[in-house]
Design a protein that fits this description.
The structure is a single chain. The protein contains two helices and two strands. By secondary structure, it is mainly alpha-helical. Strands 1-2 form a two-stranded parallel ribbon.
Length: 61
């Protein structure tokens, strides 16, 4: 089982941090896929959005 970096903030008001977080998430999901991992833990400390972001995450998988 993998773990996505906990520093990411996909809801940040800071556009640079938000874009870096999105890029990191995509790269880490791609790496987990490359390693044939079926699960990854994502801690959503800063999550303020609703189902839309969750649905976007599952598109990446």
């Amino acid at each position: 089982m993998g773990k996505i970096s906990s520093w990411t903030d996909l809801d940040s008001e800071d556009e640079v941090l938000r874009m870096d977080s999105e890029t990191t998430l995509k790269q880490e999901v791609a790496w987990a896929t490359h390693l044939s991992l079926h699960n990854a833990i994502l801690e959503w400390y800063h999550l303020n959005t609703d189902f839309y972001l969750v649905s976007e995450l599952f598109v990446l998988l």
